[in-house]
Each structure stands twice: as structure tokens, then as C-alpha cells.
Amino acid sequence: MNTHGFRVFDADGHVLESDDELVEHYEGDYKQSRRQKTWAIFPSLDGWARGVVIVREDGGRKYMHTDAKVWGEILDMLGLEGTVVYPTAALGFGLMTDVSFAVATATAYNNWLEERYCKLDARIHAAGLLPIQDPQAAAKEIERCAKHRTNFPVGLLTSRMAMSRSYGDAFFDPIYEAAEKFDLPLALHGAPSRGLGFDHFNEFVKVHALEHAVPQFIHITDMIFSGVFDRFPKLRVAFLEAGASWVPWMMDRLDYEYESIFGTGVRARLRKKPSQYFTEGENMWFSLELEERRGLKYTVDAIGSERLFYASDYPHEPKEGEMKHELEEFLEDETFSHEARQNIVYNNAMKFYRLKSLVKSGA
After folding, report:
1. Would 4 be classed as within a structural domain?
2. How many Å apart are CA 178 and CA 141, to the nearest integer?
């Protein structure tokens, strides 16, 4: 229980990968420990040396790595009941072009995460890396996460990929079919920025302002207009780390195009207006930034407080000294009802991730 009387769960934290550890967890043909260490396992996200940028901006960080012990200390410091950890380097996983190695790497990453985090602290849950390059293989990994792995309540969709597709493409239907079948939600998480129209930026702050949000605009537009949520009405997808204040704008924008002269085909194809996918059923969920107070009230008005998550994003952007203060400030903010705040910081994550053990404990 948080000091303000709220139960709090972190819907989106991160791990910092170790290639030397990861390589020990490959299976099959890639089960070997020899490699040229000059070359990292995961592709560069976009050419920006993010680790250097972070240390340059916040050189006094206590932790320069993560493990189960570090994450346990963060959970204790913030008064959190648990977290779901997402990748860092592996957010560039979709840029892998060697399909067989990508499939093997997804399995190895999940093996590593399970052994090094989930099995060492029951409060730590993991986003399973899915080999989107091979949807049938991704479907098998969804089944493994749902039925056999420890604390893997969600599968990751990386925001950028080497192939010329986005997530409305029927190519990905085997992933959605498996996600529905095994009641495992999916989460789309940004990071790579190449090819999004701002490769010319020469300051990382400009890149970071847009790199998470723009891909989500692309994927949401494609998924809704291509009928993904009609084909898979029980599919749950979270859109993470782009804030949520843009959601009402996106709802209006897609409705406008749906009703326009250009929307004739879409109107014939979809079962309801685009905005209704945001508000009806359990298809779409969003993480928010604690600082977006001005626009967040409009999002709550538009879709309610039942589809929004608190996310620590540790150990990426937040400075360790600021995380607790920002969370406490939000919990004290009576702009939102007590019920809305409790939904955002705890109840919604429990429902989305189907964390039944925590729900049974009184959530």
C-alpha cells in the first residue's frame, strides 16, 4: 500500500540487457557462447548513443544497470506492488532481418528475463519478446509465455520493423489469433526513430519528443481501418510511452476520415466508428505521463479512467530522485477522483495483464 493509501502497480518499467548474459540462453542451432563481441545482438535503435545522452544529462545516477535486486529496491522505494518490465536494446528487435536468428533471439531473451528477473522476485513480471518477423513462431512464443513461463503476462510488439508493414496487415493475424486464444494481451512500445521523418534532427530531445507517439499514430490508424479489432474482437493492445493526451484528437481525426468522401470503403468494412474502438470493449489501452495534467482530463472525459496506466519507465528517462515525488504529486491531485486515480495506478494494470493473484489479494 502506498503512503497515500493507494495500491500502485507499474505497468511499464524496463531492463537493461547484457549480451554476455543473454548469449547463454539461446536454444537449438544458436546454442553456443562464441561470438564477436564488437557486434551487439540487437540492432541500433536509430544511431543515437542513448546511454551516453542519459549519463550526460544525469551523471549522478545510482544504478547503471538493472537486475532483480535493483528492481526490488525500486519497487520498495516507490511503494509499488509490482512491475512489468519491457526491453531497452531489444526495442530495436523489429529491425532484425535474419528471421531464424530473430526467432532464436526472442526465445533467448525471454529465457534470460525469466531466469534473471521473474524467478528471483515474484513482483517482477515480463513482456515477452515476440518474433514478429515470423508470426507463426511468435504465436508459439505467445503460447509458451501464457502456459509455461513464469510471470509473462504480455507479448511485445516493437514499433518499427525492417519490413514494409504495420500492424493492420493480415500478415500479423497469427499473432492476434494466438493472443486471443491464450488471453495474452499485446503491448506496442516505441523507441526507434529512423524513417519517421525527423532523421535530420541534431538534438536527441527533438527525436524523443516524437519517436514514441508517431509510430503509434501509424499503427492505430492501420489497425482500426484495416479491421483488426473486428477480426479479433477480444484482442487487448496497450500503446505505451507516448502519453495519452493525444487520444481524443486521434479519435476525432479517425472519425472525420471515416465519415469523409475517402471513407466509403472503410465504412463498408468496419462494424462501428473508429472512436468506438477506444471506448467500447477492451481493445485499446494507454499509458500516461504523470506530467500531462492539462490534456489528461480531456482523455479521461473521452474514454474514461478505465483504460489508462501509470508507468514508471525506470531506468530510462526519469531521474531516480524525481520518480517518487512525481508519483506522490499525482496521487495527491484531486483534479481526478480517488476512483480514477486508483484505476490509473493499479486497477487497470491488474485487469489488462490479468494478474489474478494480485486481484485476489484485494484489488
Report:
1. no
2. 9
